[in-house]
């Protein structure tokens, strides 16, 4: 069981309940008999957890960033998570519009990157390999130093993907290299 400052998912008689730590304290005798004293430290010690605050992010509330070539959009993106205190993870949503500019080359960086296709059709180009078509819920992990680009493979809907970098804390740590034609 993991505790949160706002709620604790708990299984009671087959039902999933959202409980606050205060609820746990009030109901401990009947519901959680393993807890000997009625204080938060005892709850933490009993379940060997730390209390943390969840981070909720709505992309609609974030600034959009854009890469364009000669005034033509290539990609828009929203950085969802960076500078977190948990782990070195940076993630965001990229959107490639239907009418986006299609560079002949991709980009590369030293960090590995993972894409999860959220919607639309991706035309994935990795190094000099033939392009691979990907659909919603498919995943590709791209090793660091690998040239890659996701192009929109649909003429009717934007491509949206979740990008994930691990081992870094800030998007600014990613140093993009663009080969000629990218």
Characterise this structure.
The protein contains 2 helices and 11 strands; from the N terminus they run ββααβββββββββ. The protein has 182 residues and is mainly beta. It has 2 domains: 8-47, no CATH class; 59-173, Sandwich (Jelly Rolls), CATH 2.60.120.10. The strands form 3 sheets. A 6-stranded antiparallel beta sheet has the order 3-4-5-11-6-9, with no helix packed on it. Strands 8-7-10 form a 3-stranded antiparallel beta sheet, with no helix packed on it. A two-stranded antiparallel ribbon has the order 1-2. The model is unreliable at 1-39 and 43-51 (pLDDT under 50).
The class by helix and strand makeup works out as: mainly beta
Query: Strand order of the main beta sheet, please?
Result: 3-4-5-11-6-9
Strand content: 35-45%
Task: Give helix % range.
Answer: 10-25%
Indicate the CATH class of the largest domain: Mainly Beta
Order of helices and strands: EEHHEEEEEEEEE
Unreliable runs: 1-39, 43-51
Q: State mean pLDDT (0 to 100 scale).
A: 78
Number of distinct helices: 2
Number of strands: 11
How big is the Rg?
Answer: 22 Å
The CATH topology name of the largest domain reads Jelly Rolls
Please tell me what the overall shape is.
globular
Q: CA-to-CA gap between the ends?
A: 48 Å
Which architecture of the largest domain per CATH? Sandwich
Q: Give a short account of the largest sheet.
A: 6 strands, antiparallel
Which homologous superfamily in CATH is the superfamily of the largest domain? Jelly Rolls
What is the count of structural domains? Answer: 2
């Amino acid at each position: 069981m993991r505790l949160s400052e706002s709620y604790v998912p708990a299984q009671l008689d087959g039902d999933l309940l959202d409980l606050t730590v205060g609820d746990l304290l009030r109901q401990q005798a009947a519901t959680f008999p393993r807890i000997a004293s009625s204080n938060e430290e005892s709850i933490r010690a009993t379940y060997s957890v730390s209390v943390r605050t969840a981070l909720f992010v709505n992309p609609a509330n974030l600034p959009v960033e854009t890469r364009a070539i000669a005034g033509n959009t290539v990609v828009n993106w929203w950085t969802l998570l960076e500078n977190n205190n948990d782990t070195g993870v940076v993630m965001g949503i990229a959107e490639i519009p239907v009418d986006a500019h299609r560079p002949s080359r991709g980009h590369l960086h030293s960090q590995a990157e993972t894409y999860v296709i959220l919607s639309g059709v991706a035309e994935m180009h990795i190094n000099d390999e033939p392009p691979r078509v990907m659909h919603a819920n498919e995943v590709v992990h791209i090793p660091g130093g690998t040239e890659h680009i996701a192009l929109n493979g649909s003429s009717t809907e934007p491509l949206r993907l979740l990008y994930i970098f691990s081992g870094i804390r800030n998007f600014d740590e990613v140093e993009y290299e663009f080969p000629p034609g990218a």
